[in-house]
What we know:
Blueprint (H helix, E strand, L loop, with lengths): L3 H5 L13 H30 L6 H5 L17 H6 L29 E7 L9 E6 L3 E7 L4 H16 L5 E10 L8 E2 L4 E11 L4 E2 L23 H14 L9 E5 L14 E5 L15 H4 L3 H5 L29 H11 L4 H10 L19 H17 L4
Parallel strand pairs: 1-4
Antiparallel strand pairs: 1-2, 2-3, 3-6, 4-6, 5-6, 7-8, 8-9
Amino acid sequence: MHSIQQxxxxxxxxxxxxxxxxxxxxxxxxxxxxxxxxxxxxASSIAFAxxxxxxxxxxxxxxxxxxxxxxxxxxxxxxRSSIIARAQVxxxxxxxxxxxxxxxxxxxxxxxxxxxxxxxxKKDLQGKSPKxxxxxGQDDELKVKYGGxxxxxxxxxxxxxxxxxxGFGADHMYPVKVICRQCPSSLNGVQRSGGESLFDPAAxxxxxxxxxxxxxxGWSWPELDMVNEAAGGASRAQRDxxxxxxxxxxxxxxxxxxxxxxxxxxxxxxxxxxxxxxxMMLNDVGLTFGxxxxxxxxxxxxxxLAAWSKTxxxxxxxxxxxxxxxxxxxxxxxxxxxEAGRQFLxxxxxxxxxxxxxxxxxxxxVTLRLRDPGDVSSGFPTVDEWVNIFKQKREQIVARRCS
Length: 403
C-alpha cells in the first residue's frame, strides 16, 4: 500500500491520480515530512523513557499535547471557589431553530468559505497544531488554524457549532480561505504573487463574548463538581450533560487550559472582577470527533470517522459511565453520568433535525478529511456518512437508562 506521501509527493492525487501542480505538491509534502519527523522524535522519546531508570517528564512524552496539567496550579484569587460555585454551563436556546451552517450571531462573523485577507503578525500561539496570527484592517487580530492534514481545522468547527446550538459555551469558529500577506514560507501556504500565501482549508477563531476571569481563567474538570445549585450555579443535570457531551465528542485534550471561566456582561478590568455572572465553557475543542488517546494525537483524535464510528459512548453495556479515558494531560476520565444528566442531553440532541446535522458536517468540510487520516486507502467520506454515525451515537445516549 502506498502512503499519502508516496502518491502525492510523486505528482499524483491519492483520489484522482491526476498530476498535481508543483507548488501545491511542495507545500503538502513539506507538511507531511514535518509530521513524520515529529512522530519519529516522539517514538524515540518513548523508547528512551522505557530504557531509562528516571521517569520522563509528561511534556517530553506528550510532544504535541502542550503543558501537562495533572494537578491544578495554585489559585491566586481567594474568591475563585465561590465564583465557580455560582457558575452556569448552559443557556436556554431554541435548538430546532439554530442555523448551524451560519453559526452564532456575531458582528465579527465570516460567511462559510469566505476569502479573508490579512497581514501576518509574528506572535507565539499556544499549542502545536498549525496556526498563526494575522491582522485584518487596522487592528482586527485573527487567530488562524490551517492545513488539510490538521484535524483541528474540521473538528473545532463541528464541535463549537454543536456546543453553541445546544446552549453550551464555546468560541466561534469560521471555516474560511485565508490570503496572508507577508506570511513566512515556513508556514507552507500556497505561494502567490505580491508576497501573498493562500491557506485553504483554514478556520478563524472569534472568542465567545465575555471577559475571562483573571488571573486564573482555566479550569479542570474536577472543579466542575464545585458548582453548587443552591448557591445559584448550574444544576447537576446540566453539568453531567456537559460531561456526556464531551464523551460524545471524544474530547481528548482536557487539560486545564482547554476550559475557560468567563464573566459574562462584564467589561475587562485590571482590578478585582466582581464576576456577577460566571460561566464555565470549553475553550479548545479541536481534537474531537475521533478517539480520545493518551498523547492527544491529531490523526486519531481529530475528525477521524473510522475511529469515532467504532468508539461507543458508554464504557460498558449496562452502566452509565462515559467512555472517555483520560489522556496524559487530561482532567476528565470516564465520567459517571446521572439519569438526569443523560436525559437533559438526550432532550437537547433529539431536537436537532437531520438537516441541521447535515449542516454541521457540511460547514465542517468533512469531505476534505480522509475517513481514516492515517490510511490513504480509506478514501474521503460523504457528509451523509457522518450524519448516520452521529445519529447512531446519539441513539446510544437516548436509549440508555441510568439508575
